[in-house]
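A quick aside before the break. I want you to see a complete sequence-to-structure record at least once, exactly as it would be stored in a machine-readable document. Don't worry about memorizing anything.
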Amino acid sequence: MLLVAVFLVVFFAAFGQLFARQVAQLVETLPDVVQASIDWVNRTFSTRYSVDDAVEALHLTPEQAARYATDVLGGVLGIFGSLVGTLFNGFTFALLTFYLSADGPRLRRWVAERLPAGRQELFVTAWELTTLKTGGYVAARVVLAAINGATSAIVFAVIGLPSWLALGLWTGLVAQFVPTIGTYVSIVLPVLVGLLSPHPWTGVVALAWAVLYQQVENLTIEPRISARAVDVHPAVAFVSVLLGSALFGVGGALLAIPVVAMLLALFELRRSAARGAGPDPAAPGAPSGSPEPARKDDAGPPRPAEPLAAQVPAVGRAAPAVEPG
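That is the input. The structure line, written in tokens, reads:
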């Protein structure tokens, strides 16, 4: 957390003014980008679309837009209050994150001690899997977003794309944190800005870069980083994202994959426990070289059965804080 704070301070000290200026310029030019896109569609396909048609298709009248703006912003005081609320929420989130990280084991023990003895082991296992899957997924997304955003910003700056820093960060964040379609949505804005700039070839280069980077990421970078974060079939991940988005909105879509991965891991552990055996050696993430169960003719006293929580794949996992029973 200290390294993240230092990085943010250094980043905004070095690029804060440039980033704010580019974001302002990008917001100012977005209406022109939309209008130019509609004009290109009309010239190419002999249509007569307009911005008003697009707004009407969204069922958004000027009165509704004004009412939404009034409700959301609420004037200058509303904007100031929103900024203060955002800072307060960010501080609260950082404080809770630090507290749960520093005092997580004691909190886990405190909660487990208030459960029946037969449920403590299951609770500890669920806690560890939640930390493992959710933390691994978010950490992998952050690393991939940093790599994608940094490399895209460098390429956009080299080819002279307007607002290269803002567009690079947009590409990295949207591609990694918008489930399923983020990869395709993230590159639309840089390509449009490039095609409608004084040098349209920059949009073509931006599109070629996006295709090239996705191939390299999918084949080399992402498998290495996300190999142990989640292990969910793409079809299951897609359905879980749709279901999470329908039930809980954006937050549900972001957390759907790690939650499903945690539930699948819990199901596999319970099934292994019901069979009286450890995890399936053929399953992904299963530890290799697991010892064979003790036989009756072995010398020495029989060894106790391995706790259920100990069967969790040891990827950044701490020892259980509560002993079974």
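Two observations worth writing down. Residues 125-277 form one domain. The chain has a mean pLDDT of 75. We'll return to this after the break.
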